[in-house]
Amino acid sequence: MAEMDWASSDPDEPGHQPVDLQTGQPHPARVYDYLLGGKDNFAADRAAAEAGLRANPNSRIPPRENRAFLGRAVRYLAGEAGISQFLDIGTGIPTSPNVHEVAQAVEPRARIVYVDNDPIVLTQARALLTTGPRGRTAYIDADLRDIDAILGSAELQRTLDLSQPVGLLLIAVMHFIPDEDDPWTLAARLLAALPSGSYLALSHLTGDFDPAAWAGVVAVYRRSGVTMQVRPKPDIERFFAGLDLIDPGVVSLPQWRPDPSDVGGPPSDAAVSVYGGVARKP
Ligand SMILES: C[S@@+](CC[C@H](N)C(=O)[O-])C[C@H]1O[C@@H](n2cnc3c(N)ncnc32)[C@H](O)[C@@H]1O
Hints:
The chain is an alpha/beta fold. It has helices spanning 28-35, 43-55, 61-78, 99-106, 119-123, 147-151, 154-159, 183-192, 211-223, 233-237, 269-272, and strands at residues 6-8, 18-20, 85-89, 111-116, 131-132, 135-141, 167-171, 199-205, 244-245, 251-252, 274-280. The strands form 2 sheets. Strands 3, 4, 5, 6, 7, 8, 9, 10 and 11 form a 9-stranded mixed sheet that branches. Strands 1-2 form a two-stranded antiparallel sheet. Helix 8 (183-192) links the parallel strand 7 and strand 8. Helix 2 (43-55) runs antiparallel to helix 9. The chain starts with 5 loop residues before the first strand and ends with a strand. The mean pLDDT is 93.
C-alpha cells in the first residue's frame, strides 16, 4: 500500500497548511508508536525500530512501562497534588489514555497544553483537543528548544493560568535533546516560568543497567538520523535540581508508586532502562 507523504494540519481549520510528513526518515514519535503496537508509522520508522530491536530485543518494554508511569504520575498530580493545569511537552502521537483523559478522570476541569514538533503529531492533534465545561486542551506545534515560542504562544496563554501551579510533563523527551543543546537549562527555564507549587514529572532512557545494549540502540538510531542520548542517573537527577522530589525519588519506572492492582512481577531494571521521578517546585 502506498504511504502518504503529505497530510493536512487540520482540514477543518481555516488557513490550514499541508504538512510534509517526511516519511522517508524515521521520527521518534512514529518509532515509539510502532514499538507500542500502533499503526501511525511508516516503513522508515519500522526499519529503525526493528534495527533497534535487533540491538536490544527488550526495546518494546521501555515504551510500555513509560506509558504506565505517565498514567500514574498524572493521576498523582491531578489527585494527591491537586494540580489542574498541565504542560505536556513531547506529547507523542495520541495514545489512549492521553494526559487529558487521565487528568480529567480525576479533576474534570483540568486544562492541558500539548506541545510536540513532529508533523504527524500535528496532523493528529485534533484527537487531543477537547473544549467544554469539563476542561480544555490546546496543541502547540513547537520545538522544546524554543522556550519563548512555547511560553509566549497565544494557545498557552488562553489555556493555562501561569500564576497558578502547573504540572510540567517532560516524559521520554529529553533523551532526544543532546548535551550540546543543554536540556537541563531548557527544563530550568520552563520551571522558572511556573509558580511555586508547580511540579515536574520526567522520565528518561538510561544505559546504566545494560550499557552494551543501549549503546547499540543509540548507534542504530543515530545512523538512521534520530538523535538519541541515554544518560546515567546523576545526569537525570540534575533535571530536578532545586526541586523537592516526591517519594520514592528518581527510580526505575516500575518502582515509582506502582499501582496496588499491578499483577505479576515488574520487568527487570535492565529491560526497562528508564528512570522517572516527580518533584515539587518549592
Ligand atoms: C518517545 S515519545 C514520548 C511521547 C509521550 N510523552 C509518552 O511518554 O508517551 C517522544 C516525543 O517527543 C517529541 N520530541 C522529540 N524531540 C522534540 C523536540 N525537540 N521538541 C518537541 N518535541 C520533541 C517526539 O516528536 C515524540 O512525539
